[in-house]
Amino acid sequence: MRSCRALQATAVVKSSLQLKLKTSTEDTCISLIKQCHTLKSLKALHASILRSLHLHLHSLTNLISHYASLGSISYAYTLFSHCNSFSNDAFLWNVMLRGLVDNAHYHRTFLLYTRMPYLHIAPDNFTFPFLLKACASLRILNLGSQLHAHAFVYGYSSHVFVANSLISMYAKCGLFPVSERVFDKMPQRSIVSWSAMIGACLQCGFHEQGLLLFTRMLDQGIKPNRASILNATACVRRENAAHHMHRVIMDNVLDNDHSVQNATMLMFARCGRIDLARSLFDGFTYKDLVCWASMIDAYARADLPLEALLLFNQMRLQCVLPDSITLLAVIQACSILASLHLARTLHAVIIRCFLECQLELDTAVLDLYMKCGSLTYARKVFDNMKGRNIISWSTMLSGYGMHGHGKEALHLFDQMKALIKPDHVTFVSILSACSHAGLINEGWECFDSMVRDFGVTPTSEHYACMVDLLGRAGQLNQALEFIEKMPVRPEAGVWGALLGACRIHSNVELAEIAAKSLLNLDAENPGRYVLLSNIYASLGKRREAYRIRNLMKSRGVKKKVGWTSIEIKGKMYTFVAGDRANPEMDLIYSELGKLMERIRQEGYIPDVSFVLHDVEGETKEMMLYAHSEKLAIVFGLIKLGHESSIRITKNLRVCGDCHTATKFISKVTGREIVVRDSQRFHHFMNGTCSCGDYW
DNA sequence: TGTAGGGCCG
């Protein structure tokens, strides 16, 4: 209840306001409107204004604008409806259009615009930017082009405000060349034009071009503003460029700006300098939610889930409440760890929060459960979702695919097709589901139906899935022929699929053909070198294997450190090869030795070709035994009850020898062992794996 | 009355 003193204070304010308004000019009235930071205070002022003086149109327009900016679009619209007949000035309409756009009422924005000609109100250079922004938000290219034509008819298409908005609109709708053309033809450019064009490069993935444009802008003596710096910073992908950009930011004294600080931090993280990102983060005197969320997300993207979760806890300890976007980053981190316990806790937090972006969160949680190995929970989330978009359907499909449940994926795909038109991602999901489950004919049928039934043109990624499918069937030459006949240029994934097939079928000739393209197209990817070198090694071509390892070294490509994690009673344990960090390591190694002996008796033969180090046979075997996968499995066997299945997660593709050994372990221990690797899930049971030895 | 920091699927 409000106290008596508070009521008195409000009365004093009100009476002074009345006095001010009585003697006020329109300018002071507008300035008073601008001082209102809450809807309540604005309404109070509005009431006072109504009592005190006749409102001029200019003040009214400001009032409408302010109501809209405080989120009260209904108040704004009511006011607008009462006064739009007094004037045929576009100003009032522009303000209302802006209010609608800013509050995401895009369709109402277009409706309002269509009423303008009937009232003989001509749009002006301010009208089009708002409408184009609405088109950009909805990605409606047709409408955007129509508005472009309208702007041309009214003589505003080259106006700097309008052209700037056209650049952004076309880029958001994916038509980069048109953005470029608008920019090139502008008779005059402002800093906003440059910023919008750099933003367009960013939007369409032309990062280098965006940076070149930024440099060109600086060379022309144009002082960068905040937006151009933000866009250019987001274009940076290399460490050198990052340091250079950091200097530009400091030279322009923008390093105290929150958005710029945040963008700088993300830039270093993207360039592989998560350490620099963290030290910037630690140095920020004020950390807002965006800043916390960005750093958490950066850790997750850098494959450092524990750091991400630790930071999330610190954030909560400082009483910063997470929003949906922060939680999405935390979900990503959790899905790397594949901790089902953590997933359930996080899910509970999300359910309690009643956050925005429910659809996105539900989809992320669904993805999380499936990556934690629980298709059951994932399906439950999917079934309980209030609405489903194409992403949620595709996620569920890929979930079935990852677990090798091809038939279920196809069944779901049938249901989906009746409700929603599949897109290119859906087809990647369903094709890879067919491939993972070995459903060759069904895969071909899906591939054929893409263009025929849905008008989706296959991209290189779809061809990669088909190469994988052919490879699984052992049709390697057909796969090569298929690649050669592709109407689009085969990207790394296509050759990668062929190389993977060559590993399974020990075909060194085709492997070399695949590798030739691959080591150029995907030269930065350590996995490609490792795979080729392993193929050579498995065929006894040690010299060739070393050559590839050396090539990798000379190109400065670093092999990713492999780790395997296992969750025991809600706690995550992570192992790396030859690990000695766990305090129970002596026990683990002794149990490992016994287990290896048991499976050898069952017929397991260590495949030492996976060890390249120049060491003697017995030591080699020891090195194989100490692989992180095996250490984690043994730890699970020691710690978990006899009934429970062993679930482990490897950050890279599972090693061939470990795959064989795990089959034997599942046989001798009678345990179900579930391995999640970077590609898919392997369910081991009674000596066989759900992947059918193809991955 | 124009641009603008973090986010779901393969």
TrEMBL record:
<keyword id="KW-0677">Repeat</keyword>
<dbReference type="InterPro" id="IPR002885">
    <property type="entry name" value="PPR_rpt"/>
</dbReference>
<dbReference type="GO" id="GO:0009451">
    <property type="term" value="P:RNA modification"/>
</dbReference>
<dbReference type="Pfam" id="PF14432">
    <property type="entry name" value="DYW_deaminase"/>
</dbReference>
<dbReference type="InterPro" id="IPR011990">
    <property type="entry name" value="TPR-like_helical_dom_sf"/>
</dbReference>
<dbReference type="InterPro" id="IPR046848">
    <property type="entry name" value="E_motif"/>
</dbReference>
<protein>
    <recommendedName>
        <fullName>DYW domain-containing protein</fullName>
    </recommendedName>
</protein>
<feature type="repeat" description="PPR">
    <location>
        <begin position="190"/>
        <end position="224"/>
    </location>
</feature>
<feature type="repeat" description="PPR">
    <location>
        <begin position="389"/>
        <end position="419"/>
    </location>
</feature>
<dbReference type="Pfam" id="PF20431">
    <property type="entry name" value="E_motif"/>
</dbReference>
<dbReference type="InterPro" id="IPR032867">
    <property type="entry name" value="DYW_dom"/>
</dbReference>
<dbReference type="Pfam" id="PF01535">
    <property type="entry name" value="PPR"/>
</dbReference>
<dbReference type="GO" id="GO:0003723">
    <property type="term" value="F:RNA binding"/>
</dbReference>
<dbReference type="InterPro" id="IPR046960">
    <property type="entry name" value="PPR_At4g14850-like_plant"/>
</dbReference>
<dbReference type="GO" id="GO:0008270">
    <property type="term" value="F:zinc ion binding"/>
</dbReference>
<comment type="similarity">
    <text>Belongs to the PPR family. PCMP-H subfamily.</text>
</comment>
<feature type="domain" description="DYW">
    <location>
        <begin position="603"/>
        <end position="695"/>
    </location>
</feature>
<feature type="repeat" description="PPR">
    <location>
        <begin position="288"/>
        <end position="322"/>
    </location>
</feature>
<feature type="repeat" description="PPR">
    <location>
        <begin position="423"/>
        <end position="458"/>
    </location>
</feature>
<dbReference type="Pfam" id="PF13041">
    <property type="entry name" value="PPR_2"/>
</dbReference>
